[in-house]
Structures are given as C-alpha cells and as structure tokens.
Design brief:
By secondary structure, the protein is of the alpha/beta class. The protein contains 11 helices and 10 strands.
Length: 326
C-alpha cells in the first residue's frame, strides 16, 4: 500500500506470485473490464455482516504495471462505517487488499509451476470485486467465487474439489485432449478452449450440411415422384394399364422402380377390337370385297370382333348374304 493524494491509498490487488494456498493466478490472464465498470470495494469480501453491509467504497485508477495490478481506494464518506474504515486505512491499521475472482481457465503445464506450487495455475480469470482486508493469509491473498457468486471455502480439500473439474488432471484426460487435437488438425499442445472452439465449428458445419442434405433429399424425392407419375400416366395413355390401376403402379414403382418399370414395359398395349380387325390384316390383304362367308371361312375371329365392335358393318354383310341366297 502506498500514499497517493489525500484521502486515498494505492493498493496492490494481485500479482502472479504463489499464494499460501498452493496456486497462483497469472496477471496476464486477468479480465478487468466488468470490474472497471463497477469497481466495488467490500470489507473482507463481505456484502452483509454485523459490522459492514454492502460496498464501503470503490476503486480508482485500476492499472496493470508489469506483473502487478494496482488500484486506489475511495471510501464512501457518507457512510459512517465506511468512514471508520477509511481512517483505519489512512492511519495504517488496514494495509491489505485483494480480489474476489471467478476462474475461467487453468493449466497443469510444468513451465507455469513455481517451486512449492501444489495446485494448477489460473491462466484466465475475471475480477468480481476487490476488498480491503484486516488479516490476509499473505500479501497476495484472494477470494474465489463459483458460478453462482458463492464464496469458495479456502481449505486444502475445498480448493482441490474446486479445481478438479476445471482442468485435465489425469494422463487419460491429457491423452484424450491430444487425440482430440489430432482429429481436429490442431497442434498437439493446443489448449482445451481451442479444441472446444474447433468442435463448435465442426458442429456448426455438421448442422449446415445436415440441413442441406435434407433439402436435397426432399428435392430428389419430389423429382422421383414426378418421374414415377409421368411413367405410369404414359402407360395409361399407351393403353397398357387402366386409369384405376394408377395408384397401384405408382406405389409399386416407388417401392421397386426398376422391376416395376420392366413390368410395365413388358405389357402389350390393349387394342380396340375394331382397330384389331383393320390393323391385323390391312397390310396383308384387302378385305373390302370379303363376304360374310369369306369371314366365316377365313377369319371367324375377326367376324366376331366385327359383330361386337362394328355391328352396322356386320349387319351389312348379313344383309348382303341374305340377298345373295334369295
């Protein structure tokens, strides 16, 4: 703590040094933006106790100087309890201050460990508040908050339980991260946050490709259905199948396109009986002079077709025959 202008004191809030709990926080990993917008000063990190309720002041001129984070105290001089604290600071009875932080990222990297360090190094963190303190555990003491803004019990076991889920502590975890980095084409020493970012990118690409694939499937199905309907309709027009058979052949073709198409291709078109009389024989023999007896003797099937399909022409043959025998 150093003297500045009247009524304020300059405090060291944090360094990258090892604290008495066996871990350290890197100054270079500090996120002070939110804290600077609301630089709350508490006493002993407490918002509500018997002596002091809520903020007792605020911090000014928050700065990073090399490896050290400093700030100047400004007490609420309209709060009698805060005024009492200001006098204790001014007279040297309160000489320490430290952060309350949220940890964002930690590392077990050997190059970041200091002699005597037992717990991981905090590489990224966010300042929540800063407090003046009466009896800090050491010059660089601090307070931890969890995601619910609840204070963490700074016991050895409490800290171990707090740090464990925040970083990879086992060989298996580290090997898994290395395999993940390899699969994502990242460098072998890429951090967990880098892998998560790459995974999110892959997930976003997968989501986009899945949507595109579904759209292509829908378009392909629509084209296929259009083709099926067209082929079945053509078979109807070619008199290969009847109109009322269309739903059946459409369903068959959707289930087995190739074999159903072969089936339809193999069906001979139905021919009108009257057309058959003409088509079967017109190119081989002129029947315009055939009599009823000619048909009876030479093509009785065509005569029967004529009787059914062309009754007027059939009657002409009968009348002519009757005239011939009178």
């Amino acid at each position: 703590m150093a003297n500045t202008k009247a009524g304020t004191k300059k405090f060291v809030l944090s360094t990258s040094g090892l604290n008495s709990y066996g871990f350290r926080i890197l100054t270079e990993g500090a996120d002070l933006e939110q804290f600077k917008k609301n630089p709350v000063m508490l006493f002993n990190h407490s918002r509500d106790n018997e002596s002091y309720t809520g903020p007792v002041g605020r911090w000014l001129n928050i700065a990073i100087d090399g490896d050290t984070i400093t700030a100047e105290s400004e007490f609420d001089m309209n709060d009698t309890k805060a005024v009492a604290l200001a006098h204790k600071v001014e007279n040297g009875f309160l000489r320490a201050a430290n952060f309350g932080i949220k940890i964002l990222e930690t590392s077990d990297a050997a190059e970041l460990m200091l002699p005597g360090q037992l717990l991981p190094t905090v590489t990224k963190w966010k300042a929540v508040e800063a407090s003046v303190c009466d009896i800090p555990s050491n010059d660089d003491s601090l307070i931890l908050y969890n995601i619910n803004d609840e204070r963490i019990e700074l016991t050895q076991q409490g800290l171990v339980n707090f740090f464990t889920p925040l970083h990879a502590t086992t060989t298996t975890d580290m090997e898994l991260l290395q395999h993940l980095n390899t699969a994502l084409n990242l460098s072998a020493d890429a951090k967990q946050s880098d892998a998560l970012t790459a995974l999110q990118h892959v997930a976003n690409e997968h989501k986009t490709l899945t949507a595109d694939n579904l759209q292509l499937k829908a378009e392909n199905e629509a084209l296929h259905n259009e083709l099926v309907d067209g082929l079945v309709q053509l078979a109807i027009e070619q008199k290969k199948i009847s109109a009322h058979q269309k739903p059946l052949y459409v369903e068959l073709m959707k289930k087995d396109f190739d074999n159903t198409r072969k089936l339809i291709d193999g069906i001979k078109p139905a021919i009108n009986l009257a057309q058959a009389v003409h088509q079967n024989y017109h190119d081989t023999e002129d029947r315009s002079l055939w009599t009823l007896n000619d048909y009876r003797q030479r093509d009785p099937r065509a005569l029967e077709q004529m009787r059914v399909q062309l009754p007027a022409k059939f009657q002409q043959l009968v009348d002519a025959f009757e005239q011939s025998i009178k």
